[in-house]
């Protein structure tokens, strides 16, 4: 398919190119990016008053296959992803069984090739995510694993974590740490504080995260290994990373969109769809996360898309699993950062080129000769996020019936239109 995108406002985060440009796509590749391209041979899409940018890259999501296909499959996850503007998604290995060997990594990658966007598997740090024995990294890399994480579980043994980081000096793939002291967090279901006490719920103190973030940063300093810290949630963690980044070049970190928007107040009323890991924290923590994004301490924004069945989420707050779906609400939530002084191009950088750079892959860019992963969105379109709009198999979201601003209208992955908002184009 040959496509000509006309009159759009281009935001290209890698080069900093910004303004009205036309983009010609041929055979899955960006052929030209110029001020005015004339042609009668291509499918022309008018992007007037719309933003054109690279396809989004999600460094952290859960697709549940294999094991919990009732909650999500790799294909339905990709459908949800492209409707939210994502053309590359990295799925975590806490499946059943875990992605801890080359066979399971190959299974996910091959399933991903038949999906609507690029699906890149992340392998486990340790076998069975038990935190005891290092997994077979090089075999998984041969099958396209792009990083390693025991997400959902912290590698509590510091010596095991040290060895995992040392291996990155050889294979150059990041270790993605779920930094949370399991002993301090044990049985907790929300942020520890006044609200948890008032609701009679066991809390997870901020120190559970902060202590392990400090440990992981010290191990990164010791080993010089590639460390990426997942889903920061509190002020102390941001400050620790900010301090370490002054002398360490081998560390990076992320924040979820929902931690930037919600606080522990969302849990009031025992709302299971506001139960996430790490837990939603205080307003002070939320603002510190935004400040960390603005000053470059936090490298990227992720979805942590985590589908769960209705029955599980409604089994009582303490029994309900952690996690919410996140692909489809991601863009409008991130655009709320404009209200805090961030420029749109800097926001987009955090979920296009920046995560791709962490993985050392050529994604999140619009350049001549590169693969055509492109998103068109209307930053001013207001819409209601109703259940009938949800593309994911699961519906667990605290944003249901929210009025949102900013909507993806068209997603192009590998040069093909994989999602379009009804009535946008014929």
How far apart are the termini? 15 Å
**Largest sheet descriptor:** 8 strands, mixed
Low-confidence segments, given as residue ranges, are none
Helix content: 25-40%
Number of domains: 2
Judged by helices, strands and strand pairing, the structural class is alpha/beta
Q: Determine the strand fraction and express it as a percent band.
A: 15-25%
The top-level CATH class of the largest domain is Alpha Beta
* Annotated CATH homologous superfamily of the largest domain: Metal-dependent hydrolases
What is the name of the CATH topology of the largest domain? Answer: TIM Barrel
Principal-axes shape call: globular
Account of the 3D structure:
Helix 8 (235-244) links the parallel strand 13 and strand 14. This protein has helices at 74-83, 102-113, 137-142, 158-171, 182-185, 194-199, 206-223, 235-244, 257-261, 283-294, 310-313, 330-335, 344-349, 353-359, and strands spanning 3-11, 18-26, 29-34, 43-46, 51-54, 56-61, 86-91, 118-121, 148-149, 175-177, 190-191, 203-204, 227-229, 251-256, 300-302, 374-384, 403-413, 416-420. The chain is built from 14 helices and 18 strands. The relative contact order is 0.16. It is α/β, with parallel strands linked by helices and 426 residues long. Strands 1, 2, 3, 4, 5, 16, 17 and 18 form an 8-stranded mixed beta sheet that branches. The chain has a 5-stranded parallel beta sheet with strand order 9-10-13-14-15, sandwiched between helices. Helix content is 28%, strand content 23%. The two termini are 15 Å apart. Helix 4 (158-171) packs across helix 7. The mean pLDDT is 97. The chain has 2 domains: 3-52 and 369-387 and 402-420, Urease, subunit C, domain 1, CATH 2.30.40; 55-359, TIM Barrel.
